[in-house]
């Protein structure tokens, strides 16, 4: 019985470990891929299959993945899949580091200019970065016995090739419609692995362990999305704003603080333009000042302008790192509408008649309790007795109206209704 259990465990043991990259290359993706490679090596897998569909990503994260690939004791197969997928920029570097590259029909590889790696540089720095990237990709191509000229053109000329073209120019080794076809083609082939030749020996039916992202990695990947980072930053700003404008609310402050911290993590995984951050901080400052300073809306208008500029300039590094225009427009519209409402409420207060204090008595009507003349008298206003004076004689019992207030004395006049009577 024990031998039967051991036999079942041996037969069902995964020979192939599979990981899928279907997003930009970020630190969380690098952690996910390197963790999968380490697990495959540790558990004695025969092959590591890396499915790629990415527009590129961060240079540092790409190099972290490549180090794990180059240190692997088993072959790493990069498969650009499904149809319509691409291994652009950092994705092409990862594929080139792999022991075998395969592509599905209708896919492409290349376009490795360093600007696409999230760098913002002048012409000299662009040239240096391009030379560095070209040397790195060329060295990977030499290591895997692939087309080095194509590697240089992919960097300097941002060249990208289709599956058929890449196979013809010896950039990739296989074209396969699906995973099973790919595994059939590479089964039994010899793969140069460090200082030895490794024979890929797989048993049909292939046992594949599809490694999924853990909850932590999924969360970090979501947070690495520029739109999510931007929204968290805005929500954090709103939470702190409401807490400052309504001290003691607690809930907005707690939510705002959590969103700000998560936004800070997101920003460290993305190519941030600090000019954009400065504009957003300026917008926050102007909006907060608008609450405490009567500027007739000038501060709020400046805040909205800074908000838009900060949103547009927040990230650098190409289209995949830009905040979606619809997200910016919605956020700006909501922010503008909110502060326009605040400014409108503030302007209206200038036209509201005071209802308390001495200013609130002007225009109020009451009753003369005694005769009132220039020397004085008393009147009843809001149920209170006041000393009163009048430039015209007013008889006891007549209705009066307050003209002005000086200290504790009211200057009154006879109501027009009383005069008409």
Question: Would you write up a description of this structure?
Answer:
The chain is an alpha/beta fold. 48% of the residues lie in helices and 17% in strands. Helix 3 packs parallel to helix 4 and helix 10 packs parallel to helix 12. It starts with a helix and ends with a helix.
Write a compact overview of the structure shown.
The protein has helices spanning 2-12, 27-42, 59-71, 90-97, 123-143, 148-156, 163-168, 179-186, 215-223, 226-245, 251-268, 274-292, 298-313, 325-348, 416-420; strands at 16-21, 47-52, 76-80, 86-88, 100-103, 108-110, 160-162, 174-175, 190-193, 196-199, 208-210, 365-368, 377-381, 384-389, 399-406, 409-414.
Ranges where pLDDT stays below 50 over 5 or more residues in a row are 1-11, 116-120
Number of strands: 16
The CATH architecture of the largest domain can be given as Alpha-Beta Complex
Largest pleated sheet: 6 strands, parallel
The CA-CA distance between the termini, in Å, is: 118 Å
Number of helices: 15
Task: Sum up the overall morphology in one term.
Answer: rod-shaped
Please tell me how large the radius of gyration is: 37 Å
Overall pLDDT confidence: 84
Category from helices, strands and their pairing: alpha/beta
**Would you give the CATH topology of the largest domain?**
2-enoyl-CoA Hydratase, Chain A, domain 1
- Residues in β-strands, percent: 15-25%
Fraction in helix? 40-55%
């Amino acid at each position: 019985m024990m031998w039967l259990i051991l036999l079942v465990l041996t037969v069902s043991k995964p020979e192939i470990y599979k990981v899928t990259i279907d997003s930009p290359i970020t630190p969380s993706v690098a952690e996910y891929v390197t963790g999968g490679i380490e697990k495959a090596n540790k558990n004695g897998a025969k092959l590591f299959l890396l499915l790629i569909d990415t527009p590129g990503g961060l240079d540092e994260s790409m190099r972290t993945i490549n180090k794990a690939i180059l240190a692997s004791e088993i072959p790493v197969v990069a498969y650009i899949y499904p149809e319509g997928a691409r291994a652009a920029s950092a994705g092409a570097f990862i594929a080139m580091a792999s022991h075998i590259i395969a592509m599905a029909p209708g896919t492409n590889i290349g376009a490795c200019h360093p600007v696409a790696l999230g760098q913002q540089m002048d012409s000299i720095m662009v040239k240096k970065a391009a030379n560095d990237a070209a040397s790195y990709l060329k060295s990977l191509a030499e290591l895997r016995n692939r087309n080095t000229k194509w590697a240089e053109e992919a960097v300097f000329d941002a060249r990208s090739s289709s599956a058929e073209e890449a196979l013809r120019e010896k950039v990739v080794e296989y074209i396969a419609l699906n995973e099973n076809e790919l595994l059939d083609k590479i089964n039994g082939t010899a793969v140069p692995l460090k200082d030895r030749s490794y024979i890929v020996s797989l048993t049909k039916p292939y046992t594949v362990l599809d490694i999924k992202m853990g909850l932590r990695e999924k969360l970090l990947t979501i947070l690495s999305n520029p739109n999510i980072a931007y929204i968290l930053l805005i929500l954090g700003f709103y939470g702190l704003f409401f807490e400052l404008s309504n001290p003691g609310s607690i809930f907005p402050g707690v939510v705002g603080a959590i969103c700000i911290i998560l936004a800070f993590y997101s920003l460290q995984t993305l190519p941030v333009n600090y000019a954009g951050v400065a504009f957003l901080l300026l917008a926050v400052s102007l909006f907060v000042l608008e609450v405490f300073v009567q500027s007739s809306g000038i501060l709020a208008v400046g805040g909205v302008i800074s908000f838009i500029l900060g949103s547009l300039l927040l990230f650098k590094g190409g289209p995949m790192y830009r905040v979606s225009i619809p997200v910016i427009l919605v956020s700006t519209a909501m922010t503008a509408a909110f502060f326009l409402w605040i400014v409108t409420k503030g302007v209206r207060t200038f036209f509201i008649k005071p209802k308390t204090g001495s200013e609130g008595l002007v225009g109020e009507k009451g009753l003369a309790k005694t005769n009132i003349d220039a020397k004085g008298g008393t009147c009843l206003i809001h149920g209170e007795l006041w000393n009163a004076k009048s430039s015209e004689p007013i008889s006891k019992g007549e209705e009066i109206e307050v003209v002005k207030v000086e200290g504790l004395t009211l200057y009154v006049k006879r109501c027009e209704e009383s005069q008409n009577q």
